[in-house]
């Protein structure tokens, strides 16, 4: 006797719950009630014969079985959504939802442009913006959870799976307090930074990583506050 397949709603509920690790947030994202979401997860667990998530008072933990099946569920959901969007758009080249990610240093400036400009230039295209650090953007691109990302390109990118389109260049500058010995200088060599304490953005921020990588490239190892 053939085994019945899980429904799309069950798989979508499972993926959303794993992404948010919270029943309330996942239910809100899917536009369903928490009881409906819980029922879908329970039905899927019965179908696969084991617990997919571990429920706690504060968050949801994905079980080893859930971690094993999650990539297959995500792929199935992505394929179904792509099929549905293709049917809806009926061959339009650029239409539907565009999932666009941006790094935090660019989002305040480019997000308003994307939100206002894309629908105006391409009315059938609706931008959905995500703000996150470079590593998370690349992970989501690789998983098919983003359609495009705006980030600094001084990172390792799989050229076989990702197309890179340069948008613009901007200089890397140093801010110093008034009356600093460098005040008024036009440029500074990275090796001169060894005698200075740098104040950088938080770990994981691409600007921090690029600055430290530039210093290492020139043999500089400045102290970081």
UniProtKB/TrEMBL annotation:
GO terms for cellular component: protein-DNA complex. Residues 6-63 form the HTH lysR-type domain. InterPro entries: LysR_HTH_N, LysR_subst-bd, WH-like_DNA-bd_sf, WH_DNA-bd_sf. One of its GO terms (molecular function) is DNA binding. Keywords: Activator, DNA-binding, Transcription, Transcription regulation. Gene3D superfamilies: Periplasmic binding protein-like II, Winged helix-like DNA-binding domain superfamily/Winged helix DNA-binding domain. Belongs to the LysR transcriptional regulatory family. This is Probable hydrogen peroxide-inducible genes activator. It comes from Actinomyces urogenitalis DORA_12. The lineage of its organism: Bacteria, Bacillati, Actinomycetota, Actinomycetes, Actinomycetales.
């Amino acid at each position: 006797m053939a085994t019945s397949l899980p429904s799309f709603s069950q798989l979508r509920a499972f993926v959303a719950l794993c992404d948010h690790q919270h029943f309330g947030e996942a239910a809100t994202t899917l536009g369903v009630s928490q009881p409906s979401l819980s029922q879908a997860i329970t039905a899927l667990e019965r179908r696969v014969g084991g617990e997919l998530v571990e429920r706690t008072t504060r968050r949801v933990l994905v079980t080893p079985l859930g971690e094993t099946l999650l990539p297959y569920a995500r792929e199935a959901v992505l394929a179904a959504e792509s099929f549905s969007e293709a049917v809806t758009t009926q061959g339009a080249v650029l239409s539907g939802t565009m999932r666009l990610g941006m790094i935090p240093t660019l989002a305040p400036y480019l997000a308003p442009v994307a939100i206002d400009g894309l629908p105006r230039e391409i009315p059938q295209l609706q931008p959905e913006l995500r703000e996150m650090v470079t590593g998370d953007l690349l992970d989501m691109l690789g998983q098919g959870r983003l359609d495009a990302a705006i980030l600094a390109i001084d990172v390792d990118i799989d050229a076989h799976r990702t197309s890179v389109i340069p948008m613009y260049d901007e200089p890397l500058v140093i801010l110093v307090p008034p009356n600093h010995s460098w005040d008024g200088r036009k440029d500074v060599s990275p090796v001169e930074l060894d005698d200075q304490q740098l104040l950088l953005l938080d770990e994981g921020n691409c600007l921090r990583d690029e600055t430290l990588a530039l210093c290492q490239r020139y043999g500089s190892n400045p102290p970081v506050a």
